[in-house]
Every structure is written in structure tokens, then in C-alpha cells.
Amino acid sequence: MRAVAGELGVEAMSLYRHVDSKEALLDGVAEQLMGEIEPRGVSSDWAEAVRGFASSVRGLAREHPQAFTLLGMRALASASALQPVEDLLASLRAGGFTPARAVAAYRAVAAFTRGYALSEVAGFALDEGSLGADTLGDRFPTIRALSRHLASEPNQGSFRAGIELIISGLSAERER
Amino acid sequence: MRAVAGELGVEAMSLYRHVDSKEALLDGVAEQLMGEIEPRGVSSDWAEAVRGFASSVRGLAREHPQAFTLLGMRALASASALQPVEDLLASLRAGGFTPARAVAAYRAVAAFTRGYALSEVAGFALDEGSLGADTLGDRFPTIRALSRHLASEPNQGSFRAGIELIISGLSAERER
DNA sequence: ACCTGAACACCGTTCAAGT
DNA sequence: ACCTGAACACCGTTCAAGT
């Protein structure tokens, strides 16, 4: 609070005229962050809407890695934070998903995206350097054998592959 | 630190004999938490290994919701935290995934699981009560229409559905 | 209405000193 | 080797008082 106030050229106590507590202020930051996602409207292609939602959220994480952490364990319910959710759900419904399946699809996409973005911000950190190579070889032969792949930069590819996996699963489900 | 020390019947400064800082202590808690997952060994059924990994991690979140938050933004690399990862990767390799595809599959599963568990701990909070019903109806018609489904308790079903989606996507990919 | 001084009850951490 | 007293430089927050 003191730092924020300092940035505004004011004393810490002044902030309490405008927010109830530090936690409420951080809630506001998180909502503001989600509000940065530019609305895409309802897409006629549900898979494209999934890709758009996911890459928008990941973009937030890359632009504001510190603040993104706040989204990790907060349930947002402000108007600005809900627009992207509305658009995605509407696209899924328009794409032929039943209400129950649209919600399930949304949750799967949101969970993957949130988890991936947080992992990326934290650093995946399974490269060979971060462990004693000896115990690694003995106890974790597979991790050792795959260390080259695990160490590769968390890149666009690995993220895209994940959402395509989910989209592929959703397509299969939709056809049944 | 003062609270932890109190729990141990000791003064706060004593802890610094054993840990470098509060952050290091929290790293230790996170690693201990992951270490609570009982090893399942290498499964001959990769899909079953995916289900086991995912439900183990989610079980952690439900048993220790507060501590689980620590996993949200930490990259773990301790031996105890790596055993479940080793087992899953080994099962995927044994199941016929190439090194690159096994790593991609692991990342997708881990990201979804982490994201879902964190959302569940935070509370999904998209029920009708958490928003002014008026603005909801006007600006977010789809959320409003789906509010009954969105409000439903984050249950076993919604989680299972998500991993089955990923497993289904992985199966399709594996066959290509 | 908005800001501030002074104060309260805390933090994590260091360091010299104790046993 | 392990613990502690005292102290430092901080926190978030309240409240009466200022303009």
C-alpha cells in the first residue's frame, strides 16, 4: 500500500478512501488485467474461438507475468473479466454444443490455459541443470532420457499443441 | 516465520539455522506436498496413468487447499516432487508415445490438472448470485442462460470429463 | 470529499551473545 | 550445534484531525 501510494504521490492511508483493503485492491488489478483482453465477439467457428480465448489469456501472462499470478487463485466475477468468457461460451453454443457440454468445454479450456500460463510464468524447470545429474539418472531415468525435450523453451508450439489436443477431443465428443 | 516458530515452541530467529528464508521454507512445503502423492509405478495403460496422475494432484488440492496454492506458481525440481512426473512420462513412453509427444502430452495433462485444481480451490464463482442479475442479463446473455450449469458444484464429473477429453485427443493423435 | 500525522500491532531478518 | 534478546527496517490498517 505504501508503495502504491508513493507511486501516486500520496500517503498510504489515503488509499483507504478508495479501496477497502489491500486484498480488494489486488482484486481490482486482476479484474483490470482480464479487462485488457480485447473482445472478439461471437465467432461462427467454435474452434477458432477456443484458440482466440486461450491465446489471449496466455498473452496476458506474457505481457504481465507478475500480475498474472494474481489470477491464479482468484475467481473473477466483474463485468470486464466476464466478456471473454461470454464470447467463448456463446461461440460454443453457436457451434452446436449443448448447454452442459459448452460449460464442460469452457472449463477444460480455461483450466488448461490457466495452468499452462502459470507454469510458463513459473518456468517449467525440468532441464538437466536444475537437478543433480547422478540421482536423476538413477531414480528418474525417463526424465533424464527426455531432458532435452523437457528443457526446451516453453514455446508457442507446446501451447498450441495442447489446445489442439483439447479441440480434437471436443470435436470427437461433439460428433458422438 | 513467527507463527511457524511458535508452533514449534521456539523463537522465530531459530528457524534461520534451518532454512535460508521464508521463501525457501515455502518451497519446502510445496515439495513436501507433492511428495505426499503415493507412487503408482509405471502403468502398462498410459490412459490409466494419466487418470492416476491427474486425480492424485487434484486430491492434494482438496486435502490441502491452502498449501496447494503454493504449487500454483512454483517450478518444483526436488526428488520427491519428481516421482509422479517420472511415472507418468515412463507410462506414456511405454504406451507408444515418441519422446516429443510424451513430453507434449505430459505438459497438457499437467497444465489442465494444475489449472483445474487451482480454479476449484478458488471457487468457480460464476453462479447467478455473484453478479447483479440485471447487467448479467443485458451484457452476458449466454452466461445468464448457462448460469445453472456454471453454478453447479465443481464436481468429480467436470474434472473427469476434462481429462477424458485430453485422453481422447491424445488417442487420436497417437493413431495418426 | 479527500488527505494526513501519529500510532498500533504486526512482519522478515540480522547479529552478537548465550548454552 | 542450536537457540535467543534486542534491534532494524519494514508492513497493513485505524482514527482523529486537518483543508
Commentary on this structure:
2 copies of one chain form a homodimer. The first copy, chain A, is mainly α and 176 residues long. Helices cover 68% and strands 0% of the residues of chain A. Chain A has a single domain, classed as Tetracycline Repressor, domain 2. In chain A, α3 runs antiparallel to α5, α3 packs parallel to α6 and α5 packs across α6. The longest helix of chain A has 24 residues. The mean pLDDT of chain A is 90.
Indicate the topology.
The structure is a homodimer of 176-residue chains.
Chain A: H1 2-7, H2 22-35, H3 46-63, H4 65-68, H5 79-94, H6 99-122, H7 133-139, H8 141-145, H9 147-151, H10 156-175
Helix pairs in contact in A: 2-5, 3-5, 3-6, 3-10, 5-6, 6-10
The structure holds a DNA duplex (19 and 19 nucleotides).
Rg of Cα set of chain A:
20 Å
Span of the ends, CA to CA of chain A = 54 Å
CATH class of chain A: Mainly Alpha
The chain-level mean pLDDT of chain A equals: 90
DSSP strand (E) fraction of chain A?
A: under 5%
Number of discrete domains of chain A: 1
CATH superfamily membership of chain A: Tetracycline Repressor, domain 2
The CATH topology of chain A: Tetracycline Repressor, domain 2
What about the largest sheet of chain A?
Answer: none
Assembly status: homodimer
CATH architecture of chain A: Orthogonal Bundle
Number of distinct helices of chain A: 10
Share of residues in helices of chain A: 55-70%
